[in-house]
C-alpha cells in the first residue's frame, strides 16, 4: 500500500505517570510501524520528551498546529503539541487525579480531530481508570466516555482481542444484579450483531461466535435457572436466522476452552467476570482492547499503567504495537469501503 | 498396619465411570496408584473390559483381600444385583444399584474397611425418576454420614488441582438467586469447614483463604454493587476475629493467575461458575472434586457421565486417577 493511502492513526501517550510515554517514544523513534499506518502523536510534546529519555531513545519529530497540516513526505514524526500536560508536575508511578483529568482531555482533543475527519483511528497508551474518574471524568469506563464524546446512541462494546480471538460480553461494568436485569433477547441480539459486524470489519469473513450460558451447567435443563431456555437460546436462534454463525448457550466453565482450541473466533459472555476470569488466565492482558461499534476506531493495549516499572525503560511494547496494527487494519478496510461506495 | 484400600463406586453404569475404573487400574503402575476396589457388578465390568479390548482381569473379593489382589486384577466388591447398563442410555432399572454402590462405599469407610470413598459420576434424571429424593450426590453423602454418626454433616464442595483449590460458596442454584442466598453466615460457615479440613486432611497448619468478590472489580467501592462491602467484607472481618487468615474480597478476574495463587491455600468463590471457570481453565483434565465437611474423605472426578462417549473407550481417566491419588493423600 502506498504511504499516502495508509490510514492516519493518532497515537496518544496515555497517563503520563505510567509506562505510556516511554512506550510511545519507543515505538515512534525507529519508525517500526511506518508500513502499517501514518502515525501522528497527539499530546504534550514534553510528555514525549520525557518518554524518550526513559526509553533511552531519540524521537526525531516536527510540531504541527493540526493534523491536516502534516507533511507526510517528511520522515520525521508529526506531533500535535497540545501543551496541556507538564509531566514534571507529577510523580512517576503514582495515581494522580489531575493527570487523569489531563489524560481525558487529551483523548477528547483526539476525538475532535476524528470528528473533523483528520484522523481515522485513535490508539492510546494505558490510562488509569481510577485517576480519570477522580479527575472528573465520571464514566464507568473509557468506552462510555468515547461514545459520549461522539454523541453515539447506537450499540457499542468493549472487545478483548488476542491472537485472532475476540471476546465480548452482553453486560459490562455494572453490579451482578444489574447485569442479570440487563440480559434480554434484545441485549444479546444486539451484542451478537455488534460482534459479527466488528469481526467482519476486521477482515474475518465468517465469524464463528460461541455464546456462554448464564447459569451453572447451562441451567441443567431448567433445574438451575431458566434464562438459557427463555432468553439465550431464542436470541441465538433469532440471530442464526439473520445469518450470524453463533452457537450455544454453552456452560461457561468450558466455553472458553473451546474457543482457545480454535473452534470459535469469538465468545460472548453474559457478564464481566464470566469473560474476564478465563481471558485473563489465557494472557489477554497481552492483547488489545477495542471499542467496537463507534464511528472512530479506538484501540489500546489491554495492560495497565504498570506503576511498578515506570521510568525504567523496560516496558514491553508488543501489545501496544498490536493495538496500532489492529486500529490500522480496521481503519483501512473502512477507507476502502468508503472509496468503493463513492 | 497395612494401609486400607480405597472404595470406588460404580457410578452410573451407562456412563463412562465403569470404563474409567478399568483404565485407572491399567494405569496403576505408571501412576503409582494405591490399591482400590470397585463396588459394582463384576459381570458387567468383565463384559465391558472385553468389549473395549482393555484386557483387565476382574476378581471378586472382600475389602480385606484387596491389597493382595490389586497387583493381579481389578478387585470388585460385588453388588447384590446385576446391572442392565447400555452405554449412553441410562436405565431407570439401574438406579437401585447406583444408590447401593454409594451406600456400601460409605458403610465400608465408616466401618474402617476402606480408607476413603471415591465416587464415579452419576446421572440425576434416572435417579429422580426412580424416586431418589436427594438433589445431588454430595447431599446424599451428607445424609449417609449423618445416618452413620448421628451428627449433622454439611458437605462443602471443593475443586482441587495441584495448582488451585477453590470452593464455591453457593453451588447448584440459578445465578439470579445468588445475591440473595449469599449471607455472612453462609460465607463464615463455609469458610470454617474449609479451614478445618485444610488443617485436618490437607495438613496445612495455618491455611490462608482468599475470598472473591461478587461484583466486577469486587464492587469498586460500592459503585458496582453493594454485596462486596456489605456482606463479604464483614464475613471476612468475622473470620479474622476468629483467627482465620482470610483476606479479600478480591476482584475475581485477578485472583487466579499464578502470582495470586501463591498467596492463598484455597480461594472461596461466591458462585458455581466463578469457581469452575478458573479450575477448568487451569486444570481441565486433572481437577478433582473433594467433599469437605464429612466424617470421611470423599473425592470424585470433576466431570459428568459423558453419555456421548460412554462405551467407546475415548474417555480420559486423568481426573479419576487424580481423585484416587488425592483420596489416598488425604486419608493417610
UniProtKB/TrEMBL annotation, chain A:
The keyword S-adenosyl-L-methionine does not apply. Pfam families: PdxA (PF04166). Gene3D superfamilies: Isopropylmalate Dehydrogenase (3.40.718.10). Transmembrane segments: none annotated. Keywords: Metal-binding, NAD, Oxidoreductase. This is PdxA family protein. It comes from Flaviflagellibacter deserti.
From TrEMBL, chain B:
It catalyses: 4-(phosphooxy)-L-threonine + NAD(+) = 3-amino-2-oxopropyl phosphate + CO2 + NADH. It comes from the Bacteria. Its main location: cytoplasm. Its EC number is 1.1.1.262. The keyword Cytoplasm applies. Its cofactor is Zn(2+); Mg(2+); Co(2+). It is found in: Cytoplasm. Substrate binds at residues 137-138, 280, 289, 298. One of its GO terms (molecular function) is 4-hydroxythreonine-4-phosphate dehydrogenase activity. SUPFAM superfamilies: Isocitrate/Isopropylmalate dehydrogenase-like. Pathway: Cofactor biosynthesis; pyridoxine 5'-phosphate biosynthesis; pyridoxine 5'-phosphate from D-erythrose 4-phosphate: step 4/5. A divalent metal cation binds at residues 172, 217, 272. Keywords: Cobalt, Cytoplasm, Magnesium, Metal-binding, NAD, NADP, Oxidoreductase, Pyridoxine biosynthesis, Zinc. It is an enzyme of class 1 (oxidoreductase). Binds 1 divalent metal cation per subunit. Can use ions such as Zn(2+), Mg(2+) or Co(2+). The active site is located at the dimer interface. PANTHER family: 4-HYDROXYTHREONINE-4-PHOSPHATE DEHYDROGENASE, D-THREONATE 4-PHOSPHATE DEHYDROGENASE. HAMAP family: PdxA (MF_00536). Catalyzes the NAD(P)-dependent oxidation of 4-(phosphooxy)-L-threonine (HTP) into 2-amino-3-oxo-4-(phosphooxy)butyric acid which spontaneously decarboxylates to form 3-amino-2-oxopropyl phosphate (AHAP). Belongs to the PdxA family. Homodimer. This is 4-hydroxythreonine-4-phosphate dehydrogenase. The gene is pdxA.
Amino acid at each position: 500500500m502506498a504511504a499516502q493511502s495508509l490510514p492516519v492513526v493518532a497515537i496518544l501517550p496515555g497517563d503520563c505517570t505510567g509506562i505510556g510515554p516511554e512506550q510511545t517514544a519507543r515505538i515512534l523513534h525507529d519508525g517500526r510501524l511506518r508500513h502499517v499506518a501514518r502515525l501522528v502523536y497527539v499530546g504534550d510534546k514534553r510528555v514525549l520528551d520525557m518518554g524518550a529519555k526513559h526509553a533511552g531513545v531519540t524521537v526525531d519529530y516536527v510540531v504541527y498546529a493540526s493534523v491536516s497540516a502534516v507533511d507526510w513526505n517528511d520522515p520525521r514524526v508529526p506531533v500535535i503539541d497540545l501543551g496541556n500536560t507538564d509531566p514534571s508536575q507529577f510523580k512517576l508511578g503514582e495515581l494522580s487525579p489531575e493527570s487523569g483529568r489531563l489524560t481525558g482531555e487529551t483523548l477528547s482533543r483526539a476525538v475532535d480531530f476524528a470528528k473533523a475527519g483528520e484522523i481515522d483511528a485513535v490508539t492510546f497508551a494505558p490510562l488509569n481508570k481510577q485517576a480519570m474518574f477522580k479527575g472528573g471524568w465520571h464514566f464507568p469506563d473509557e468506552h462510555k466516555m468515547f461514545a459520549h464524546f461522539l454523541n453515539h446512541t447506537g450499540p457499542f462494546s468493549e472487545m478483548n482481542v488476542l491472537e485472532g480471538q475476540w471476546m465480548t460480553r452482553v453486560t459490562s461494568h455494572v453490579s451482578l444484579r444489574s447485569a442479570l436485569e440487563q440480559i434480554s433477547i434484545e441485549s444479546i441480539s444486539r451484542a451478537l450483531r455488534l460482534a459479527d459486524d466488528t469481526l467482519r470489519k476486521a477482515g474475518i469473513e465468517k465469524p464463528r461466535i460461541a455464546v456462554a450460558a448464564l447459569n451453572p451447567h447451562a441451567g441443567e435443563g431448567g433445574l438451575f435457572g431458566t434464562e438459557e431456555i427463555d432468553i439465550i437460546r431464542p436470541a441465538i436462534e433469532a440471530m442464526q436466522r439473520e445469518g450470524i454463525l453463533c452457537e450455544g448457550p454453552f456452560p461457561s466453565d468450558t466455553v472458553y476452552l473451546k474457543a482457545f482450541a480454535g473452534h470459535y473466533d469469538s465468545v460472548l459472555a453474559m457478564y464481566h467476570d464470566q469473560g474476564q476470569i478465563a481471558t485473563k488466565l489465557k494472557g489477554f492482558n497481552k492483547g488489545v482492547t477495542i471499542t467496537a461499534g463507534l464511528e472512530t476506531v479506538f484501540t489500546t493495549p489491554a495492560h495497565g499503567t504498570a506503576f511498578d516499572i515506570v521510568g525504567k525503560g523496560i516496558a514491553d511494547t508488543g501489545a501496544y504495537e498490536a493495538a496500532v496494527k489492529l486500529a490500522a487494519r480496521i481503519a483501512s478496510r473502512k477507507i476502502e469501503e468508503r472509496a468503493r461506495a463513492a | 498396619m497395612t494401609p486400607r484400600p480405597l472404595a470406588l463406586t460404580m457410578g452410573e453404569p451407562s456412563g463412562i465411570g465403569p470404563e474409567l475404573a478399568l483404565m485407572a487400574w491399567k494405569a496403576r503402575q505408571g501412576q503409582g496408584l494405591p490399591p482400590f476396589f470397585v463396588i459394582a457388578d463384576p459381570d458387567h465390568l468383565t463384559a465391558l473390559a472385553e468389549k473395549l479390548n482393555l484386557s483387565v482381569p476382574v476378581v471378586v473379593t472382600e475389602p480385606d483381600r484387596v491389597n493382595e489382589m490389586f497387583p493381579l486384577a481389578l478387585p470388585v466388591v460385588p453388588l447384590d444385583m446385576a446391572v442392565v447398563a447400555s452405554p449412553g442410555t441410562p436405565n431407570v432399572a439401574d438406579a437401585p444399584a447406583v444408590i447401593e454402590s454409594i451406600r456400601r462405599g460409605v458403610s465400608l469407610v465408616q466401618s474402617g474397611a476402606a480408607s476413603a470413598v471415591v465416587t464415579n459420576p452419576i446421572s440425576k434424571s434416572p435417579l429422580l425418576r426412580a424416586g431418589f429424593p436427594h438433589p445431588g450426590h454430595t447431599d446424599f453423602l451428607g445424609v449417609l454420614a449423618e445416618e452413620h454418626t448421628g451428627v449433622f454433616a454439611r458437605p462443602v464442595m471443593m475443586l482441587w488441582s495441584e495448582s488451585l483449590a477453590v470452593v464455591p460458596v453457593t453451588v447448584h442454584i440459578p445465578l439470579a438467586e445468588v445475591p440473595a442466598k449469599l449471607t455472612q453466615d453462609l460465607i463464615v460457615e463455609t469458610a470454617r469447614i474449609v479451614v478445618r479440613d485444610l488443617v485436618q486432611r490437607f495438613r496445612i497448619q495455618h491455611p490462608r483463604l482468599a475470598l472473591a468478590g461478587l461484583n466486577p472489580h469486587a464492587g469498586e467501592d460500592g459503585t458496582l454493587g453493594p454485596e462486596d462491602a456489605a456482606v463479604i467484607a464483614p464475613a471476612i472481618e468475622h473470620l479474622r476475629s476468629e483467627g482465620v487468615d482470610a483476606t479479600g474480597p478480591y476482584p475475581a478476574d485477578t485472583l487466579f493467575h499464578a502470582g495470586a495463587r501463591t498467596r492463598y491455600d484455597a480461594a472461596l468463590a461466591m458462585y458455581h461458575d466463578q469457581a469452575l471457570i478458573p479450575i477448568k481453565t487451569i486444570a481441565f483434565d486433572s481437577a478433582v472434586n473433594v467433599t469437605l465437611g464429612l466424617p470421611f474423605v470423599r473425592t470424585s472426578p470433576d466431570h459428568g457421565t459423558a453419555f456421548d462417549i460412554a462405551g467407546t473407550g475415548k474417555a480420559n481417566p486423568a481426573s479419576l486417577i487424580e481423585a484416587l491419588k488425592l483420596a489416598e493423600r488425604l486419608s493417610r
